[in-house]
Fold this sequence. Notes:
Blueprint: H1 3-11, E1 16-20, E2 30-34, E3 36-37, E4 44-49, H2 53-61, E5 63-69, E6 76-88, H3 93-103, H4 106-115, H5 117-120, E7 123-128, E8 132-137, H6 139-146
Antiparallel strand pairs: 1-2, 1-5, 3-4, 4-7, 5-6, 6-7, 6-8
Amino acid sequence: MPVEKRESFLAGAHVGVLGVVDPRGERAPLLVPVWYSYQPGGEVTVQTARDSVKARLILDAGRFSLCAQTESTPYRYVSVEGPVTAVDDPVGKAEREAMAHRYLAPDTAAAYLAANSHQLTDDILIHMRPARWRTADFALFAAEFST
Length: 147
């Protein structure tokens, strides 16, 4: 994908799959679905509990990857990997609200934030600067077979 298209895709509201190395014994990398945010040209941010395995592994590794994809044809994906650049601890109210409203309808987001207000105070916001990109857009490929 061209730079503008891949950045626009990543900025869309997709559930991402976060990957981070897991050095605990003979384990594969940790892969977990996450909500994330991204603005073209900026950093990826992920909110998680400060005491979670995910947070500990990310902070120990100093980097992580994230893959966002479409769930229907034509398939597209953007995968980014890069270093952690900052950690906001605790997550600010505006950031918590923005993340909830990115993924949920307004009424649902408000209810989610109210129901999880205590839990959300235990979260941190991890920033990552995309250093490597991998992308695919199968729309053109699919078009060849639909004519």
